[in-house]
Amino acid sequence: xxxxxxxFLPRVESFQDCTGRSRSFNITQGQQSEGVLVTASxxxxxxxxxxxxxxxxSTMGNALGLLRLKIKDGISRRYLGSDTEHGVEMxxxxxxxxxxxxxxVVDGRMLSYDQLLQALSSFEGWSIEIxxxxxxx
Length: 137
Known about the structure:
Blueprint: E1 11-16, E2 22-29, E3 36-42, E4 52-57, H1 60-75, E5 80-83, E6 87-90, E7 97-100, E8 103-106, E9 109-112, H2 113-120
């Protein structure tokens, strides 16, 4: 019996976010010369561009496991809230996101640099630390 094997990737997987909403991700294998790069892009996000995650590892199994943990960790908290009077506000003293052309993606939604500055303005006079990290680690 000769059954045709389906490729393991791409595939769609769903995860629950901090509000109990199910979010679906398209998981694909990226281009690389050594090891395995896997990426996840949110399908039909409520706000564009949605969540995106990437992980590199020496093996497919490890890369997928790390990617799933990264997705769960990334969607398990929110960093920003919205207020009709004040606009975008940081919910705590921490914000985490990804640099993008024209702004920063936080909580899966694009913030212009002006919106980011507005969110930071409630901490005027405080110190700030900016850390740039590799999104695949």
